[in-house]
Design a protein that fits this description.
Helix content is 39%, strand content 16%.
């Protein structure tokens, strides 16, 4: 008998029933990019012996519609169930769970970057081409917030433990809004809290939550509502803060003179004085050696 070709098609039950799985989790498809971002942030992939395992996503039952969409987009058998239970946060919590057991589907998700087990520190944007704004909308729908602050200001925020995802949001949002953010874990629980407000929040929300996109309905409605905000006439526009570069730090340390550094770097003397003090007292790290 002739040997099988190394890349020969493997017959599966899905072939028998005519199920086409070739496009599943194509991250250049906006719906799958969103779905993957959401699952990375709010899903749990468990593994057991004999290649058994399960992907689950449990959310508040009010958002069950998005789980129905995940079920529709998945060409493998999956289920959506509901339950009511007591939690530390509420006496009665009504939740909905999407469950997927297919080994083939789970293998695909692992290949494109979904870790098994505890994943909050390990998740990162995909390394293959993907629809960026849809992916980030999925992450924000799962682990972020959109709306108005207590002071009535528009905001978009993300809470994450992943350095890679936090940094990617800052990078992407700067390209869209011009607003620069740096990430720093809070000291209490090691979480990154990334916040955009006012016009930056309006621009980011309008970009991420475009008409017809797959999203949580309540967050899409909140994003749409941000467009109505108008800056009060007496609210000044704070200029973007110019961040220090390592090359500037090296010049500042070399000159060791506020006035000379201010002229050389096109900064104020006060800015140079404060930065020099922070460098010398260890409030900020010293620059690396010259390249």
């Amino acid at each position: 008998m002739a040997g099988r070709e190394p890349n020969a098609h493997q017959f599966t039950l899905d072939d028998a029933f005519g199920v086409d799985t070739t496009g599943f989790m194509d991250l250049e498809d906006p719906n799958y990019a969103y779905m993957f971002g959401f699952v990375q942030a709010d899903g749990h992939l468990s593994t057991q012996s004999r290649q058994r395992g399960r992907l689950t996503v449990e959310i508040n039952a009010r958002d069950i519609g998005v789980l129905r969409e995940f079920q529709r987009l998945t060409p493998y058998n999956s289920s959506v169930s509901e339950r009511t239970r007591s939690t530390n946060f509420a006496e009665v919590h009504h939740s909905a769970t999407w469950s997927l057991c297919s080994l083939e589907a789970r293998t695909k998700l692992i290949e494109i970057g979904l870790p098994t087990g505890r994943k909050s520190l390990k998740v990162a944007p995909p390394r293959l081409p993907f629809s960026r704004r849809d992916y980030l909308r999925g992450v924000i729908d799962a682990d972020g917030s959109v709306g108005y602050t207590g002071q009535g200001l528009p905001f978009v925020s993300l809470t994450t433990k992943s350095t890679a995802i936090g940094a990617y949001l800052c990078f992407y949002a700067k390209k869209i809004t011009g607003a620069e953010r740096s990430i720093k874990r809070n000291t209490r629980d090691g979480i990154y809290n990334i916040l955009y407000t006012k016009e930056a929040a309006q621009g980011l929300a309008a970009h991420l939550y475009y008409p017809g996109c797959l999203s949580l309905e309540r967050k899409r409605a909140a994003a749409d509502s941000l467009a109505a905000w108008v800056r009060p006439s007496d609210m000044r526009v704070a200029p973007d803060r110019r961040r220090w570069k390592e090359s500037e730090d090296r010049v500042l340390l070399k000159l060791n003179d506020d006035a000379a550094a201010a002229e050389e770097l096109n900064r104020t003397e006060k800015s140079c004085c404060v930065r020099l003090w922070r460098l010398r007292t260890g409030k900020v790290p010293m620059p690396s050696s010259d390249q």
